[in-house]
Amino acid sequence: MAGKDSTLLDIDQDPADQLEFQDIPHIHGSEKGPRDEDGQTHTFTTFPAAADDSEDEVEGKPQLLTDKKQPSFWTFEYYQTLFDVDTIQVVIRILNSVVPRPKSNYLQSYIRPNPDLYGPFWICATLIFTTAITGNLANYFHTEGRDYEWKYDFHKVTFSATAIFSYWLLVPLALWGFLWWRRSSAGYSFLEILCVYGYSLAIYVPVSILWVINISWLQYLLVILSMVLSGTVLVIVFWPAVKEDDKKVALGTLLVIFLLHGLLAVGFMLYFFRFASESGSSSNVTTPAAVTSMVNLQANPEAQTKVTQVLTTAAKQLMNSSKT
After folding, report:
1. Ranges for the Yip1 domain (predicted)?
2. How far apart are CA 297 and CA 249, in angstroms?
3. SS3 (DSSP) at 31
């Protein structure tokens, strides 16, 4: 029996045997292999055939991502990505464009990282037709029951289209240029600003329909309500872009953004709908007496001669009085 300080060294094989190459049998499934001469048990399991394919896919993905190029600015594919948005996302952006949240930035929460032009374009197109159609409808209600032949005014469509698209394109462009000039740290792109302004016009679509109601205080109330709701969202969006600038410049910029947005609503209401609450409009309605006199004058040549003589005599008297 060995003592406490003794050491037991168990060597199963000679060093020469350990240097020899040996064939190790592969055992399929979960069966255990036989014990080798070195006293160790080698167990092998089969791997699924898809394991190699999955590993190849993982290794190949970075290569595919690096090979995929972004479409050029001058290609159709580039603009196609700007309209790649689903209906639910558009509805969510419309609803949140009229709900001011001081603790939430509308652009950072709902527009990034996928700004689109699909929603803003159709909002502008819808607003053009709603203002033009309801404006003509208000004019029809205003002249109903009078001796006046009502006609649809197509110039209102042209005016509304020019005003809306000019506001949607020029104001974001000027604001983006101003922020770039002031070196804003927010990093708002022109496309993001354009998207925000397009969705900010969504509140004016139902308001333009309600403006048909011929109640003066209601029309002004709708102007104030829409201006405050949508304008406040714009102020919250662009506050991070100007807060690091001079206080006067920052407050002045936000004030201009708010007033321009409200001025658009006031202009729509005054041009398309305000005449409906006035007592009359000489440019649109001609009195029946004046119409009758003009018709009788054209049908009677003698009356035309008398009117000409009267006008000639009055002109001569006016010239003589001026000489004296």
Report:
1. 98-266
2. 64
3. coil
| Pairwise CA distance, residues 221 & 242, whole Å | 30
At residue 12's C-alpha, the angle toward residues 33 and 19, to 5°, is 80
How far apart, in whole angstroms, are the C-alpha atoms of residue 109 and residue 233? 12
Which pLDDT belongs to residue 65? 44
Angle, helix 155-181 to helix 216-242, in steps of 10 degrees = 20
Contact call for residues 33 and 44 (beta carbons, < 8 A):
yes
What was the pLDDT predicted at 15? 55
Residues 6+ apart with CB under 8 A from 41: 32, 33, 34, 35
Query: Half-sphere exposure (CA, 13 Å, Cβ side) for 114?
Result: 12
At 41 the three-state DSSP class reads strand
Question: Is-contact 226 203, C-beta < 8 A?
Answer: yes
The radius of gyration computed from the CA coordinates of the chain, to the nearest angstrom, equals 40
DSSP structural state of residue 72: P
The low-confidence residues of the chain, meaning pLDDT below 70, are 1-74, 76, 78, 145-148, 275-324
pLDDT at residue 145, as a whole number: 64
Q: How many residues does the chain have?
A: 324
3-state secondary structure of 48: coil
| Structure-token match 């969510």, residue found | 92
